[in-house]
Amino acid sequence: MNWFREILNVAISGLTARKVRTLLIMLGPVLGAAGIVAAVGLNESAKGDVRQTLERLGTNLIIASADGSFSAGQAPTLPEDAVERSMNVSTVDRVAGITEIGSLTVLPSQGGKDFFRTIPIPVLTSDQNLLNVLDAQMLHGRFINGSDESNVFRSAVMGHDLANDYQYLPGELRTIDVDGETYGVVGVIEKVDLVPKLDTAIIIPKSSAEEDFDVEQKPTTLYVRATEGNVDSTAEALPMAINLGGDEAVTVAVPSDLLEAQGAVDTTLRNILFLMGGLALLVGGVGIANVMSISVIQRSGEIGIRRALGHTKMTIALQFVLEALFVGVLGGIAGVVTGVCVIYLVSSILGWIATLNIPLFLVAGGMALIVSVIAGLYPAWKAARLEPLETLRLG
To answer: Residue 267 pairs with which residues in a beta bridge?
Structure first.
């Protein structure tokens, strides 16, 4: 065991004596292991965020909208009694409609008018049960209510992102300009992940929209909650129930399907990043082989002296294999730690809950170790073939 301990010490000394070279050849295993860990970890974290969103908002939301193009400043509409027709489908639990008003300009009443004039803001009217159907909440204030409708109040509710853009403060008395009419902001809706359009929209009462902008109160979109386990059958039945053989074409979408499709895209991206991490490992392995081969030439004098002192070809080869092994171990550990840091950093920025795959750490570290050892075999063989007299002369 003394001879092995001696070779071990020589191998460690060979690495620590040339710190810059050691760090350079470690880059390959570090980047490869970090890429593999980060790719899979971020993918799992993203999928976890999607699952949480689906659990929070449900998978039974269906969006039915009029299929067509804008005409005369108005979005394509559904029949006026589309909500009632939808409720005739036995698997429908609850429904709310919105009407999107086209060709209106929304501006903050004070400051930034020239900037915001170029940004289209959706202006909507909606049924009062919209938040209940979407399982959404108010962030500040209140939603449009019966008093707003019956008294034709110029009240407005802002989406979460729009409120941030307008720098709205909770409880602030704020007015906005809707196509020349002044509306008072009464509330802000929390983010609606399944319906991101609402995050940048303004919702006003139907009565004031009809009086100020002569809006035809036909819904452009319905938000439908199906009963548990009946999403597909409800989605198939809705177009016929809403249309009833009329001219209005109806398009149906299930937002949760889009989120799940996003998860599939994330998996594809994960696989690409995983392959890139593996490629980095291979390139790193080539780098290890190249740098260690040069090191054999530079250390030929050292090798010659050790051979003259009685070290066999096997011990010389073992020394270089051990150096490659240490590079793989240290590079694998550093790569795993780097990958974990990337997962936590990106997850914190995007608001995800970081998900760590512990067995993957062993896989990534093991791959770095295996590639490094394989890469070190050629330099080890090359060093073992050097003859003592030749190495002393070259050294």
So the answer is: none
For residues 275 and 22, is the Cβ–Cβ distance under 8 A? Answer: no
CA–CA dist 241, 219 (Å, integer):
15
Strands (DSSP E) found in the chain: 61-67, 92-101, 106-108, 123-126, 138-141, 155-158, 175-178, 181-189, 202-203, 221-226, 249-253
Distance CA 304, CA 302 (A): 5
Ramachandran bin of 185, using left for φ above 0, alpha for ψ from -120 to 50, beta for the remaining angles? beta
200 secondary structure, DSSP code: G
pLDDT in tens, 344-377: 999 899 888 888 888 888 888 888 888 888 888 8
Element (H, E) at 228: none
The overall pTM is greater than 0.85: no
Tell me, what amino acid is at 230?
N
Of the candidates 123, 83, 88, the one whose C-alpha atom is nearest the C-alpha of residue 224 is 83
Q: For the chain, percent helix, then strand, then coil, each to nearest 5?
A: 60, 15, 25
CB of 159 closer than 8 Å to CB of 189: yes
3-class SS at 325?
helix
